[in-house]
């Protein structure tokens, strides 16, 4: 493994950590409706659990209402039950073959709780990024120990890994602040 390989691997893994953070934060409900909030809800479809988006059209009716239109008439009751039983705190209402999912307004206390969850998730991502930095530095030290690289090359590579880590952590902070602002917006 070369220095370039180590840096590339670290960069790739850090990018995956940031993507995982974005995916995790997308699941956290804000006051506004967005179809992606139902992605984690699964419904029983002929014996297998599948995401709602694979058995129905999920779209927005307005800023606070999601509409779910099942592709098969018999699924409406199952989808409604799955949404109601999910941990999202949503209360769907059926209107014929269309299911309306109104997004309740968040209380101030709930908004503060959600910002704590967002900060905690961001902190977990930062820890993961720092662990990746440590892993990369360990690989670099092993190269130095095996006399595959010179000391100054190893030091320079560690500095570059540190700069990469700083950049990714700054990006994580920016993402977390954006999500907090979105949650606190009334």
**What is the count of DSSP helices, taking H or I runs of 4+ residues?**
4
Mean pLDDT: 87
Q: How would a crystallographer describe the biggest sheet? A: 4 strands, antiparallel
Principal-axis shape equals elongated
Overall SS class: alpha+beta
Point out poorly predicted stretches. Answer: none
Q: What is the tally of beta strands?
A: 6
Residues in helices, as a percent range: 55-70%
**Strand order in the sheet with the most strands:** 3-4-6-5
Strand content: 15-25%
Q: Distance between termini?
A: 51 Å
Order of helices and strands: HEEEEHEEHH
Computed Rg = 22 Å
Description of the molecule:
The chain is built from 4 helices and 6 strands. With 186 residues, the protein is α+β, with helices and mostly antiparallel strands. The strands form 2 sheets. The chain has a 4-stranded antiparallel sheet, covered by helices on one side. Strands 1-2 form a two-stranded antiparallel sheet. The N and C termini lie far apart (51 Å).
Would you spell out the secondary-structure blueprint of this structure?
Elements: H1 3-27, E1 42-45, E2 48-51, E3 56-62, E4 65-70, H2 76-85, E5 93-95, E6 98-102, H3 108-145, H4 151-184
Antiparallel strand pairs: 1-2, 3-4, 4-6, 5-6
Helix pairs in contact: 1-3, 1-4, 3-4
């Amino acid at each position: 493994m070369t220095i370039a390989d180590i840096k590339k691997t670290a960069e790739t893994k850090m990018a995956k950590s940031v993507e995982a953070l974005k995916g995790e934060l997308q699941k956290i409900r804000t006051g506004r409706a967005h179809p992606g909030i139902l992605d984690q809800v699964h419904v029983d479809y002929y014996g297998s659990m599948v995401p709602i988006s694979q058995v129905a059209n999920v779209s927005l009716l307005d800023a606070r209402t999601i509409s779910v239109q099942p592709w098969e008439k018999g699924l409406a009751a199952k989808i409604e039950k799955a949404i109601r039983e999910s941990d999202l705190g949503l209360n769907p209402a059926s209107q014929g073959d269309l299911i309306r999912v109104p997004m309740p307004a968040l209380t101030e206390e709930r908004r503060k709780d959600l910002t704590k969850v967002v900060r905690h998730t961001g902190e977990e991502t930062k820890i993961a990024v720092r662990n990746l930095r440590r892993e990369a530095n360990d690989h670099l030290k092993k190269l130095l120990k095996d006399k595959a690289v010179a000391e100054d090359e190893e030091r320079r590579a560690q500095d570059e890994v540190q700069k990469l880590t700083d950049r990714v952590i700054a990006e994580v902070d920016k993402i977390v602040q954006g999500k907090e602002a979105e949650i606190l917006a009334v």
